[in-house]
Design brief:
With 499 residues, the protein is of the alpha/beta class. It is built from 17 helices and 11 strands. It has 2 domains: 176 residues, Aspartate Aminotransferase, domain 1 (Alpha-Beta Complex), CATH 3.90.1150; 264 residues, 3-Layer(aba) Sandwich (Aspartate Aminotransferase, domain 2). Helix 5 crosses helix 14. Bound molecules: pyridoxal-5'-phosphate.
């Protein structure tokens, strides 16, 4: 059938905006820009621009009249792309050691690019057939390393680890308080107040999720950490007991598999046994570290994972795909259906069939959801697990070597033996003693280094005192680059101390 074509000029411009050839030509020019960007392996941190200046630069790129369709301007698009690329964290540079954003496998961009054009929101099979099948396949692949019963477990993708944590806590609450969804807070009236136990170093998204659920801050039971900054198993049972005497009922315990600040792994097997004895749901926030499961060398750090109730796993961190791509696993698939208990005739079918069986809309918060599994599943299909395992092993080994380097430097203190790819340390020349001075110095060093723009690192408070933190996400980094970073820290530290 031939398409009717309007001769109106506005319709002509409308057609131009959707023109496949224009799309191809400009995609090619964008790819050229990205190739140049990826090939630049110079040592760079962040080029931090003042927001007002960046706003002016961005405003200058906006077409003056948006009340009519503007003719396509290739130069304007090119300038927007250049500014976008230039102002990001250069995750592919060896200077980038700062945060948990992946240096992504560039080919994931090819898949994401296709996702943006074919637009298949993935909460429902009928809208996104391959993504839903890919989710099932990927869940099975990754569960080989978790070890849940393959016939019972379930997995759902969510837009980020924070949302996965919230979803898991909801499922836990609805499991332990089946009337809560319908009756709200009155379901627990007159009973001990629901509480959640967390490792003292838990990611803020967990306490935020608790807040969303109406669990107040004083209903969060903080479990103390041992010297390795893992939940201390000697103290945990006593702290839970003490919570009970405060008329709190801990229904869920959240452990970390790779804490944000130090990458520490809580003792999952022991915690699972404790949780089972006390009828507590054990959720593991493995946003950072669950990916270590795919490596034969690292897997033991999550020993006992097969016994937990739910697990958050961010593929956009240590599986090196673009954000967001989070997988939320439940050991018991039926309980994974429990986070949301709703009817909606326009989407949730009353009579499920082989197609709607694959819908995830009832298990995830989002209605429209990016088909985020596609880059991960495609890379896994094309390259295999070993690609991820090799990169993870490299990054963990590199971090262990960096730790040794810090240990050998008399003016630096390593704060822990790294369990993954995160290392915290302080610059502390011997003439500096007081904790408050040490704190201020680390903060000032981090800020100056960020401004200088050669390296990008982060900071975190450890036991109340600031520490410098590197997160090795990029396999282009060598131990030599880390030595260069220490030299820069030392130079900046001396300047700050001696004027
Ligand atoms: C341990 C941990 N949990 C949760 C999150 C939050 O994940 P997201 O940024 O994907 O929402 C992070 C992010 O840094 C994290 O490190």
């Amino acid at each position: 059938m031939t398409q009717p074509r309007s001769e109106e000029p506005a319709a002509g411009l409308l057609l131009e905006a959707f023109d496949p050839q224009l799309f191809r030509e400009n995609s090619e020019s964008a790819l050229g820009r990205l190739e140049k960007h990826l090939s630049d392996l110079s040592i760079r941190g962040l080029e931090l621009i003042r927001p007002a200046a960046l706003t002016r630069a961005a405003q200058a790129l906006m077409a003056p009249d948006s009340d009519q369709v503007n003719p396509f301007d290739e130069e304007r698009l090119g300038a927007i792309l250049d500014l976008y690329i230039r102002t990001g964290i250069p995750v592919h540079s060896p200077g980038y050691m700062g945060r948990q954003f992946s240096g992504v496998v560039p080919l994931s961009g090819v898949v994401d690019f296709v996702s943006s054009v074919v637009n298949q929101p993935s909460s429902f099979y009928e809208a996104a057939q391959l993504p839903n099948v890919a989710e099932q396949l990927m869940a099975g692949e990754l569960n080989r390393f978790i070890g849940f019963d393959p016939d019972r477990f379930t997995m759902v993708t969510t837009s980020g680890g924070s949302l996965a944590n919230l979803t898991a806590l909801l499922a836990a609450r609805n499991d332990k308080y089946p009337d809560y969804w319908a009756e709200g807070g009155s379901a627990v009236a007159g009973r001990p107040r629901p509480a959640i136990a967390v490792g003292a170093d838990v990611h803020y998204s967990v306490s935020r999720a608790a807040g969303v659920l109406g669990i107040g801050e004083d209903q969060l039971v903080k479990l103390p950490l041992n010297d390795a900054k893992q939940i201390c198993m000697e103290q945990a049972p006593h702290v839970l007991q003490a919570a009970e005497s405060r008329k709190l009922k801990v229904f869920c315990l959240v452990a970390s598999a790779g804490s944000t600040s130090l990458g520490a792994f809580d003792p999952l097997g022991e915690l699972a046994d404790l949780a089972r004895r006390k009828d507590i749901w054990l959720h593991v926030d493995g946003a950072h570290g669950a990916s270590l499961l795919v490596s034969d060398k690292q897997r033991a750090k999550l020993k006992g994972i097969e016994k937990v109730d739910s697990l958050t796993w961010d593929a956009h961190k240590m599986l090196f795909v673009p954000a967001p791509c989070t997988l939320l696993f439940y050991r018991n698939g039926e309980k994974g259906q429990g986070a949301f208990r709703q009817q909606a005739s326009y989407v949730f079918d009353e009579e499920p069939d082989i197609y709607t069986d694959l819908d995830s809309g009832s298990k995830n918060f989002e209605c429209t959801k990016r088909p985020m599994i596609m880059p991960l599943w495609t890379l896994w299909s094309v390259f295999g697990r070993a690609l991820f395992a090799e990169k993870i092993d490299y990054l963990c080994d590199l971090t262990a070597q960096a730790h040794q380097v810090v240990e050998q430097e008399p003016d630096f203190d390593a704060l822990h033996r790294p369990e993954s790819n995160i290392l915290c340390f302080r610059y502390r020349p011997s003439d500096l003693i007081r904790a408050d001075e040490t704190h201020r110095l680390q903060v000032a060093i981090r800020n100056r280094i960020k401004r200088q723009g050669n390296f990008f690192l982060s900071k975190v408070n450890v036991d109340g005192v600031a520490a410098l933190r590197v997160v090795m996400m990029n396999h282009q980094i060598t131990v030599e680059h880390f030595r260069m970073l220490l030299n820069e820290i030392r130079k900046v530290g001396e300047e700050l101390l001696h004027g």
